[in-house]
Amino acid sequence: xxxxxxxxxxxxxxxxxxxxxxxxxxxxxxxxxxxxxxxxxxxxxxxxxxxxxxxxxxxxxxxxxxxxxxxxxxxxxxxxxxxxxxxxxxxxxxxxxxxxxxxxxxxxxxxxxxxxxxxxxxxxxxxxxxxxxxxxxxxxxxxxxxxxxxxxxxxxxxxxxxxxxxxxxxxxxxxxxxxxxxxxxxxxxxxxxxxxxxxxxxxxxxxxxxxxxxxxxxxxxxxxxxxxxxxxxxxxxxxxxxxxxxxxxxxxxxxxxxxxxxxxxxxxxxxxxxxxxxxxxxxxxxxxxxxxxxxxxxxxxxxxxxxxxxxxxxxxxxxxxxxxxxxxxxxxxxxxxxxxxxxxxxxxxxxxxxxxxxxx
Length: 360
Known about the structure:
The chain contains 11 helices and 11 strands. The chain has helices at about 35-40, 55-60, 110-120, 135, 140-155, 200-205, 275, 285-295, 310-315, 330-340, 345-355; strands at about 20-25, 45-50, 65-70, 85-90, 125-130, 160-165, 175-185, 225-230, 240-245, 270, 305-310.
């Protein structure tokens, strides 16, 4: 699947697509991270919906011949065909995320039930619901998860809950997500890790892109980086709070931290450009961290080698096709990327589901 990183534009050209196994309906689609992975695995998205018009515009760049509607899911006319293998999607997660308020009364938390309502109406062979890890493991959501699985059982679906780290599946990002998979056939094939203890590094991914600031990698985040006046130190230079804002420095020799949907300003992750270009160059971040640990005072300004990741780099970290066009303002483009399921992770989930449905 290395072709995710080779500048390929069209979804039908990415990798070696599997033979077709059936149609899928995509809900809360965003820019199509799940759909890309499932398409590579041989599923055919025939209908998609999201409330974000810019995300749907981006989606249509890759799936120009598929119906993709914009607006509240409850206001849409679902496809009439009965030949649907799967319903897939990632209902809004802000109500569940530990980064949010985790409020059971948050109206966005109701979208998981809207998802299940569509499953009930369309009666596919299976469904795949993606969401944040907290929905699966946090005690606050235990009854909700039990309720979802109980409802699925009433509709004739056996369910299995997975918590997967994208870095185990060839994605240069340590992004944990839950997948609730329901099948009318009670035979589950688990997604198989491909990392073999050697996850893809951030540096190897970013070096495949055009040079920073040149065409193809020039959607630059201009949010200023300043040292924290009262830094919070941790054992790792890439933990704690060395800089103002919530944009965390990234270790180029590891998978990236989870990219947030709030990128575009001072929450956009930070890297050392010199360390990216030069294998033997010590990271300024590591040196500054060492200085602080030794009792040094915080600097008044950071080195010019520090910068924030671009839109194109964020997309590559998520394993979107290189050169995929994201629509909207720069902030909305970052948001589409940060909200997405990494397509490469989606592909491995899709292949496991494909085998579960008897299509090896």
